[in-house]
Amino acid sequence: MRSSILLAASSAILAVASPVLQERGRTIVETETATEWVVVTVTDGIPLPSMFRPDRNRVFPSSITSFSSASPSPTPAPEPSPEPAPAPIPEPEPEPAPPAPPVEVPPFVPPAFVEAPQPQPPAPAPPAPAPVQQAPAGDDYVSTVLFHHNVHRSNHSSGDLSWGGNYADYAMQTARKCKFEHDLAPGGGGYGQNLAMYATSSGAQAFGANRAGAQAASDFWYNGELHKFPSNGYGQGTPDMSNFHGWGHFSQLVWSNTQQVGCASYLCPAGTMVGNMDAWFTVCNYFPAGNVNGAYANNVKAPSGQPTVQAS
């Protein structure tokens, strides 16, 4: 079985004229087997025509003849018989109106049914870009550590750091002590400092100093703390400091006014830092020191949205 422990300590700064915060944080991660980090028809009917019958009742005129008997009387001169009235000339019956032309009813044509196309499922949204790991310019320790600082600084509009050999020497003096605590005694102080530790039960030697330095800068101090910086803290001279220990490494790493960095990663044997595990102890010193109260607005700027870079 194999387990791992990760610790990161916050920046410590010494400054003469400006108040500088010195904080320390620890992150412990244990892994087994592999090294891990903790940090929803109608058919209309046709009406039938009405039938009509003519009135068949007829009226016939009737005549009555009467007779009477009396004594003869002189025969009167016959009166001229009236001429019979001329028989009425029957008027010709009107010719029946010609039948109306038949109305042609167009044959019923059922409407054509066109099957509606099946709705297509919406196109899936493009996947979010995966974290991008860019290779450093060189494979030596200095190039690796500088890359994993400057790639994140550019995302916050801060210039590249250069390597500070003296500060790297001071960092090695602190790392060799294998004590997870800030130490600004080497060189007399006057610089900022970030600490990180990675412990594992096996394979520590193969893990190597380069990977330990890259992991400390990218995975612990930047990616591990970027989201902890107050969202409304950008542009403020002094943001909310109640969780400074959670984001102080990040703000030192991207601090615009810092010009140099010097780091060292040292393999501490089992029992010195962690009971039965070897541990890589990484120390980075920064000059000029960051995390100066009242100066955050000009030195910790909002990220520009560049791709995420990880050590592994």
From TrEMBL:
InterPro entries on file: Allrgn_V5/Tpx1_CS, CAP_dom, CAP_sf, CRISP-related
CDD domains xrefs: CAP_euk
UniProt entry keywords in alphabetical sequence: Signal
Regions of compositional bias (Pro residues) in chain numbering: 73-110, 118-130
Bias kind Low complexity: ranges: 63-72
Signal sequence region: 1-17
Residues of the SCP domain: 140-294
Example of a GO cellular component annotation carried by this entry: extracellular region
Alphabetical list of SUPFAM superfamilies matching this protein: PR-1-like
Name of the protein in its database record: Scp-like extracellular protein
Lineage summary: Eukaryota, Fungi, Dikarya, Ascomycota, Pezizomycotina
